[in-house]
Design goal:
35% of the residues lie in helices and 26% in strands. It folds into 2 domains: 186 residues, Rossmann fold, CATH 3.40.50; 71 residues, no CATH class. Strands 8-9-10-3-11-12 form a 6-stranded mixed sheet, with helices on both faces. It contains 9 helices and 12 strands. The chain is of the alpha/beta class. The structure holds adenosine-5'-diphosphate and magnesium ion.
């Protein structure tokens, strides 16, 4: 039996994310060279790797912000952006893709809040528009989410009035407002001053403890060790190494993983 840090038995749990043989090029540059990845429901996967190794592109393909040239991705059992018929894959219409995307939360390095909306409005708008939730219900849930990320007193503030750490916590609350089955984080603390990193990591740790399925790209190795059920090391468009944090971080098998860790640790 394999048990996640949040105490879920992943053998009994279903697969939440499956990435198979995914390739992606930008012009002549092949950025993903055949990537496979499996994430069980309730599992936290941390992706490490040098800049340019394809981590963001992989996350963007999982969320269908980018289309793979080859291979496929499934989230929660449904193929992302396409449907299978026999051996053939057919693209889904944009409307269907947008619907699929509402089940996936994405937190970016640079927050991407709506600057003209208050903190509360930032969290309320997504479920009202994307899930057609009644505004009162969405507002009640948003208030509860702001309490959870420690920002209840900032509900009426505008993003420009917040610190980077507070903005990123709003972005997490906004992602959670869609009640996603999967949360993706792309270097959520890289744009923050060092003293603000901890408050954002604490919010993500809380989600991990609740058994939220997450893929987190980060350079915070101590954090990875603490929350990851699985660590994936990527380099040059490939998954080089994958395993339990103790194995990959303490006893990496590949020279490239060792070289990377010796630089960031
Ligand atoms: P990482 O997140 O690991 O730093 P990325 O996935 O962002 O890596 O990028 C991998 C490579 O793909 C980089 O060389 C980057 O410059 C290139 N790349 C990413 N997105 C685009 C794009 N939209 N157009 C052209 N090149 C891109
Ligand atoms: Mg990146």
């Amino acid at each position: 039996m394999t048990v996640t840090k949040a105490g879920k038995d992943t053998n009994a749990a279903s697969v939440m994310v499956e990435v198979r043989s995914v390739r992606k090029s930008f012009g002549p540059l092949e950025v993903l060279k055949g990537v496979d990845l499996t994430v069980a429901a309730g599992e936290v996967t941390v992706i490490l790797g040098p800049s340019g190794s394809g981590k963001s592109t992989l996350l963007r393909i999982v969320n269908h912000l980018e289309k793979a040239d080859a291979g496929w991705v499934s989230v929660g059992g449904a193929l992302i952006g396409c449907r299978r018929s026999g051996d053939k894959l057919y693209e889904l219409p944009e409307r269907e893709v947008l619907k699929q995307r509402t089940r996936i939360g994405f937190v970016f390095q640079d927050f991407r809040l709506f600057p003209h909306l208050t903190v509360l409005e930032n969290v309320v708008e997504a479920p009202v528009w994307a899930l057609k939730r009644p505004r009162d219900a969405a507002t009640a849930s948003a208030v509860a989410l702001l309490v959870r990320v420690g920002l209840a007193d900032k509900a009426d503030a505008y993003p420009r009035q917040l610190s980077g750490g507070q903005r990123q916590r709003v972005a997490v609350a906004r992602a959670l407002a869609l009640e996603p089955g999967l949360l993706l984080f792309d270097e959520p603390t890289s744009a923050l001053d060092p003293e603000l990193v901890g408050e954002v990591l604490d919010v993500i740790k809380d989600l991990a403890r609740r058994g939220t399925t997450m893929i987190v790209v980060t350079h915070e190795i101590g954090f990875a060790r603490e929350i990851a059920d699985t660590v994936v090391f990527m380099d040059d468009g490939r998954v080089v190494e994958r395993g339990a944090p103790d194995d990959v971080l303490n006893a990496p098998r590949h020279a490239r993983t060792k070289a990377f860790l010796s630089k960031v640790l």
